[in-house]
Design goal:
alpha/beta, globular, 8 strands, 4-stranded mixed beta sheet, two-stranded parallel ribbon, about 15% strand
Length: about 230
């Protein structure tokens, strides 16, 4: 996957163009870009938002308000930076919120990862061809996202688990892990070059972006791997 130097030359400026164009850099787009790039395809990733560094994320109410853009088609008004981290859209009776930045929604959540419940996998709507690869695909995602359990020594560990699990069935509560760096468990997956992380301090700021560079968001995992694969 090529890095874009100028948005005006983003698409098809090379002699041979691109094999694929991926729109969006959240969990879906980043995985697609990574797999295509690792398969040898020349990929162009299009993302509306900017690259967010740990120091850029809001850490108080005032900063969060400054990181929101609101667009209302009902009122015909919009306000807030166009590249704001949080994008809120209102149209008719619908209200939608989305993250805007390289990494998409992975920037503003706790990276909760749970194994797919058996009863869900038994749903006949899933393609039968997926079943043999289900465990290996989940294991691959868990490895590249470097998921880890919440350390019991955190005084807020129980609260974090209650918040993140919510109403998830009891059978998977003990399997819940986060794509955070607690520096507790060893991982077989080595982060791409220049993607070293700091340690989570359980500040609870996950939903507004990690200001301590401890979250394995997709820009640090799948997208970094895509760029690395292209460079090989």
């Amino acid at each position: 996957m090529e890095k874009t130097a100028d948005s005006k030359q983003m698409l098809f400026d090379g002699e041979d163009g691109y094999d694929a164009v991926v729109v969006g850099s959240g969990y879906g787009g980043s995985v697609a870009a990574c797999r295509l790039s690792m398969a040898g395809f020349k990929v162009c990733l299009v993302e509306k938002g900017r690259k967010w560094e740990a120091k850029d994320f809001p850490t108080d109410s005032f900063q969060i308000m400054s990181a929101v853009r609101m667009e209302s088609q009902n009122l015909g008004v919009s306000f807030g930076p166009k590249d704001a981290l949080f994008q809120v859209y209102e149209q008719n009776d619908s209200l939608a919120a989305a993250a805007c930045g390289l990494g998409g929604g992975s920037l503003v959540n706790a990276g909760v990862m749970l194994p797919t419940p058996v009863r869900t996998r038994r749903n006949s709507k899933w393609p039968k061809e997926w079943e043999p690869d289900w465990e290996s695909c989940e294991a691959s995602a868990a490895t590249i996202m470097r998921i880890q359990s919440i350390p019991v020594q955190f005084t807020v560990a129980k609260i974090m688990k209650e918040i993140d699990v919510g109403e998830v069935e009891e059978m998977v509560q003990d399997s819940m892990k986060l794509s955070m760096n607690f520096d507790i468990e060893e991982s077989s997956y080595r982060l791409p070059e220049h993607q070293n992380l700091d340690i989570c301090i359980a500040c609870g700021n996950c939903l507004a972006g990690c200001p301590y560079n401890a979250k394995n968001s997709t820009d640090k995992t799948y997208l970094a791997s895509a760029i690395q694969a292209y460079s090989l």
